[in-house]
Amino acid sequence: MAWINATQRKRDSSGQRNICAACGHPGTGEDPLVITTDGFRVHLSDTTNPNSGFYGQQQA
Q1: How confident is the model at residue 1 (pLDDT cuts 50, 70, 90)?
Q2: Residue 20 falls in which region: left (phi positive, over 0), alpha (psi -120 to 50) or beta
């Protein structure tokens, strides 16, 4: 099970579960949200793009 930090849990409970913590846009079928190593939901592309601050930070 993925670890989600307290800030993201608060975002989730306020209706932002499918909103990227990095850019504020919703996740999509083509670019779903994943959980980073520090517990935030961001687009998959944020974790696979070497130019992103979240590169390589997807939880396994």
Answers
A1: confident
A2: beta
